[in-house]
Amino acid sequence: MRLSEEKIQVVVADDRPLPRGFFELTVRSCEGYELAASFSAAGAAVSWCLEHPPQLVILDIMMSQGIDGLTAAARLKSALPDLRIILATSMAEAKWLDEARKLGIEAFWYKDSEVPLPEVMDRVMTGEIVYPDIPQLPIGRVSQTELSDRELDVLRELTACRTNQQIAESLCISVNTVRRHIQNMLDKTGFTDRLELAVHARELHIVVSDRDRKQSVER
Prior knowledge:
- This protein has helices at about 15-30, 40-50, 70-80, 95-105, 115-125, 150-160, 165-170, 175-190, 195-205, 210-219, and strands at about 10-15, 35-40, 55-60, 85-90, 105-110, 140, 140-145.
- It contains ten helices and seven strands.
- α2 (about 40-50) runs parallel beside α3 (about 70-80).
- It is of the alpha/beta class.
- The chain folds into two domains: about 10-125, 3-Layer(aba) Sandwich (Rossmann fold), CATH 3.40.50.2300; about 140-219, Winged helix-like DNA-binding domain superfamily/Winged helix DNA-binding domain (Arc Repressor Mutant, subunit A, Orthogonal Bundle).
- The longest helix has 15 residues, at about 175-190.
- A five-stranded parallel β-sheet has the order 2-1-3-4-5, sandwiched between helices.
- It is elongated.
- α1 links the parallel β1 (about 10-15) and β2.
């Protein structure tokens, strides 16, 4: 492919054909941008970018094979600090926004956002840092934003089907503290037991366990 030197070169990566096709179409339809390459795996995108550095990369976070988007973004930022990156996801996992900020990623975009992707692209390329508000998703009687950060940590472990003892060891807290956080979440949400709580959280993608996020790497 012969690339224009005047246009902003963009690389996209998403493991699912429809979202990847949307990214490709969006880039191609935006004046001043050119699709340099498109990949179904984040690792392949990283390898390509290191050989042919673009100006902008759009990465989905969850990938079905190889490294996830956050890991790919970290590698790209380490090697190409001036590269602009937009991380995209359809999941409401607030922890990922914090991770992206710590990595120095320029933008985070929810796929169902009211802010169109071309606007985010333009703002990022003019030097803006673009991050959304955390989506307000109902979990039982409350929104997930009404759960504390520590409760969300415990809930994340619950969705991975971990026992209280395993959660305590993972979070370096006592088993009694784990029980207290679980009971507080049950009281807030109105769910009858931990299984119901975990199932709803998983279905809504309010939290994504580290095991689920890294599962593809282990396969």
